[in-house]
Write a structure and sequence with these properties.
655 residues, alpha+beta, Jelly Rolls, 2 domains, five-stranded antiparallel beta sheet, three-stranded antiparallel beta sheet, 15 strands, 12% strand, membrane, transmembrane
Length: 655
């Protein structure tokens, strides 16, 4: 009797767990809270069926052990550094990376449910529903100035103080915004879309060998809409991750793709070519009409961009890795420890104070680096081993007919070189669930090594390492540059070359002194904004700056058509932290002057004109003194040689 009752409880628990998993797939594109509740129910209810189903989990224990091992090493490191925490349990439970281990509990359970043939059809259907909800919410958010998740939860009314969407530019007369679906950030949404996008594209490609034109058109439209939303999303790390996944699939499936292509008839090939041309022209049109996409592409090869924050984050991270290579610094302590590494840089150059302050340093923005720092290198190595097994599984599953391809979950490997997706609960939880589904529905992987998956993991890792070794070899004096805003990107780039770096970069300063920077007369006559310096001095609490602000302009004696005058307006600009970075900031002019320019150096000096607090806690009541500059009095019929501009180290130019 007890055995019958136990079997009944086990079957009911298994059924509750399975349907919780299905509804979790529907919930995670819509609500973080609901998805976590359903994931918790899936895990908890499955526990009552462990007696019967526990032995069936053995084949999934190795990859799961790598995941849990990585989290355990972070916990172990935290215990070793117990005395260094001011409030251990508070910090550990709220901030530690090891606290996310529960997310991974869904991995073997999802694999178990997916391994049953009677479940696979329903899972397939719910994956389609999940993708559809994700795509539709993303498209809706493109045209909403409000963040849809909070907007809906507030009864379709914006709450006071809620951040608006990031503008993406006009499209056919409509204002568009970075798509975030119902998530809180565009990076999270980009990560979720990445799980499905490669699968949709692969299904589209597979449909080409069929004679069902409606299916081809339907999947092509889905692919186009998905790519459009994905490009607008602006998650460059996800872009790289998806590109890497496609590279892995294409290199590993050349024979399969050739077989598909050989069955495509001429008529269908022409239809495909037409669709590709339409998609290409549409993407080109979107790129030409969208300044955000243009800026993003142009930033990929530049160091002085918003992504330059990675430079500072990694610059502060590497000393932590060197000092604590075995056990790491402990969970939840990255920000505390990396902040200590800022002091030498700011002491060497005070202008970096603000730059480092607005650089988000809650984590390393690199999954492997984060776990290596907080849990030691062994923790990061366990993640590498897990991803090796993941790509072995992707390699065996990517072209299975009748299933929704989940190869997109592999995007986290390369994307994780630039973002901490494994620390983002909204992305990590679906990742473990989808990875489990992928693992369970396929055949058992052979135990022998996969040279192709191993080569992919090693090559991508080494490429990333080599890239950052090269990038971090740039001295901090040259990695920093003042923000400049001009009416054209071309003029902005020219001005960036004209502004001198810090005095310690003597060779670069000499180089810029001798170079001739030529722009059109229209550009030279337009106004540009040049970032200045703070009203208060380091450290914190900050003291009011006492010395005046000064700028130097240098015109080469050999310049043929330099400006003979410059108009300078000093304006006040609010300082802000990273959470306020995307708001509009109050600006007002403080004074203006027209300066005559001659051959050689000319200087402009401005003294503070407003009574400010003598001592304050940064960034409260701390402002920027920045400059609007416009050159004048030159021959408008000829190109203009703009002057070199020197602000010294801290708006303290001296002849």
């Amino acid at each position: 009797m007890n055995l019958i009752r136990s079997d009944r409880i086990s079957r009911i628990s298994e059924s509750v767990s399975f349907y919780s998993l299905l509804y979790f797939l529907v919930a995670f594109p819509l609500s973080v809270s609901a998805s976590q509740v359903l994931a918790g129910l899936c895990i908890f209810s499955f526990l009552f069926s462990l007696r019967e189903n526990g032995p069936k989990l053995k084949q999934y224990l190795l990859p799961w052990a790598f995941i849990l091992g990585a989290y355990f090493l972070v916990f172990l490191s935290s215990l070793v550094h117990f005395q260094e925490y001011s409030h251990f349990w508070k910090t550990f439970t709220r901030q530690s990376e090891a606290g996310d281990f529960w997310l991974a509990l869904i991995f073997p359970i999802a694999a178990f449910h997916s391994s049953k043939e009677e479940n696979q059809k329903k899972i397939y259907q719910f994956l389609w529903i999940s993708f559809s909800l994700l795509l539709l919410s993303g498209i809706a958010s493109v045209f909403s100035e409000y963040r849809l998740g909070k907007f809906i939860s507030n009864g379709f009314h914006p709450a006071p103080g809620d951040r608006r969407q990031h503008p993406a530019g006009p499209l056919f007369g409509f204002q568009t915004y970075l798509p975030i679906g119902l998530m809180n950030t565009h990076l999270t949404y980009g990560g979720l879309l990445s799980f499905y996008l490669p699968g949709i594209l692969l299904l589209t490609f597979q449909s080409l060998k069929e004679k069902k034109v409606p299916k081809i058109l339907f999947l092509s439209i889905l692919s186009f809409l998905s790519l459009w939303v994905f490009l607008l999303n602006q998650s460059k790390s996800a872009w790289l991750g998806i590109a890497a996944v496609f590279g892995f699939v294409l290199l590993g499936s050349q024979e399969s793709f050739r077989a598909i292509l050989s069955k495509i008839q001429l008529k269908r090939a022409l239809v495909i070519l037409l669709l590709v041309c339409i998609a290409g022209i549409s993407i080109r049109f979107l790129y030409q009409k969208n300044w955000l996409l243009q800026r993003t592409v142009s930033q990929l090869t530049e160091i002085q961009t918003p992504e330059n924050q990675r430079y500072w984050i990694y610059k502060l991270s590497l000393p932590l890795l060197i000092k604590n290579p075995i056990l790491g610094v402990g969970g939840g302590r990255f920000k505390e420890e990396s902040t200590k590494e800022e002091v030498p840089l700011i002491t060497a150059q005070e202008q970096l104070w603000y730059e480092l302050y607005i650089t988000p340093n809650k984590h390393a923005h690199n999954d492997l680096l984060e776990f290596a720092i907080v849990g030691g290198w062994a923790s990061a190595i366990l993640w590498i081993l897990f991803f090796y097994l993941l790509f072995k599984r992707i390699d065996s599953d990517k072209l299975v007919k009748g299933s929704f391809p989940l190869l997109g979950i592999g995007f986290i490997w390369v994307a994780g070189f630039f973002q901490c997706y494994l620390l983002d609960d909204e992305v990590a939880l679906p990742f473990f669930a989808l990875a489990g589904i992928l693992w369970g529905r396929g055949k058992k992987i052979e135990s022998k090594p996969s040279p192709f998956a191993l080569a992919f993991i090693c090559i991508t890792f080494l490429l990333n390492t080599g890239f950052w070794i090269w990038r971090l070899s740039t001295p901090f004096q040259l990695a920093y540059a003042r923000q400049i805003f001009a009416e054209s990107s071309h003029y902005t780039k020219k001005l960036e070359k004209a502004v001198f770096p810090f005095r310690s970069a003597s060779e670069e300063r000499e180089k810029r002194l001798t170079q001739s920077i030529e722009v059109s007369s229209k550009e030279a006559g337009s106004e540009f904004y040049l970032e200045g310096c703070l009203t208060h001095r380091y450290p914190n609490p900050a003291k009011l700056r006492e010395e005046p602000y000064s700028i130097g302009f240098y015109i080469s004696p050999t310049a043929k058509n330099p400006p003979k005058k410059v108009r300078i307006i000093v304006f006040s600009e609010e300082s802000f932290d990273e959470d306020k970075l995307y708001w509009s900031h109050r600006k007002f002019d403080l004074g203006s002057e027209e300066l005559n320019l001659g051959s050689g150096w000319d200087s402009y000096v401005w003294k503070e004109s407003i009574g400010l607090s003598k001592i304050t806690i940064f960034p409260d009541i701390v402002f920027f003194r920045s400059f609007k500059i416009r050159f004048a009095d030159f021959d408008p019929e000829k190109p203009v040689q703009i002057p070199a501009i020197d602000l010294g180290d801290l708006c303290d130019f001296k002849l």
